[in-house]
Structures are given as structure tokens and as C-alpha cells.
Amino acid sequence: MNVQLRFFASLREQFGSHEALTLAPGTTVGQLRDLLMARSDAHAHALGRSRALRCAVNQLMCGEETVLQEGAEVAFFPPVTGG
């Protein structure tokens, strides 16, 4: 299934504002986060479980247990973001 990733604030500065990914059906937000953390040390540091990080799917706040659907937009951002 295809999803769109969006990064905000300091994450956007590191990884760009967006990208498209193809994932296995039934992938959760937590599994997606794990996949992203495995990409590089920079990803592991920025997206690590010790970091305060918010997630939203289709502009609705969600937890890591949320199952992604085809065409979903998944956003990652720090808890406080600026203008």
C-alpha cells in the first residue's frame, strides 16, 4: 500500500517535508516508525522512542497502534512546533 509521509519542524529540516513510501498492508504507525529508524543513525536519533514525538494520520492525532490504510498521510512532529 502507498502512504505519504510528512515531517514538520526539526524533522523537516533533517529529512525534508515529505516522501512517498510503499508498505505492507496492515502496517501500524509504530511499525512505520521502526522502519524509518532503521534507515540511518540520524533517523534512529530523531525518531527514537526516547524522543517526544507526535503522530497524525490524515490530520488526526493517533497512537502507534493505528493501522495505516492505502493513501494515508502520516505526519511526524515534535510536540511543540513553530509557525
Defining key terms:
Ubiquitin-like (UB roll); alpha+beta; globular; 5 strands; 3 helices; five-stranded mixed beta sheet; about 80 residues
**Integer average pLDDT:** 93
- How is the main sheet built? 5 strands, mixed
| Protein structure class | alpha+beta
Helix content: 25-40%
CATH architecture: Roll
Domain tally = 1
CATH class: Alpha Beta
Low-confidence stretches: none
Q: How many extended strands?
A: 5
**Apparent shape:** globular
Given the structure, what is the number of helices?
A: 3
SSE pattern? EHEHHEEE
Main sheet: which strands, in order across?
Answer: 2-1-5-3-4
| CATH fold-level assignment | Ubiquitin-like (UB roll)
Task: Spell out the CATH superfamily.
Answer: Beta-grasp domain
Strand content: 25-35%
Distance between the termini: 32 Å
C-alpha-based Rg, rounded: 12 Å
Family: Belongs to the MoaD family.
Pfam family, one: ThiS
Keywords: Nucleotide-binding
Protein name: Molybdopterin synthase sulfur carrier subunit
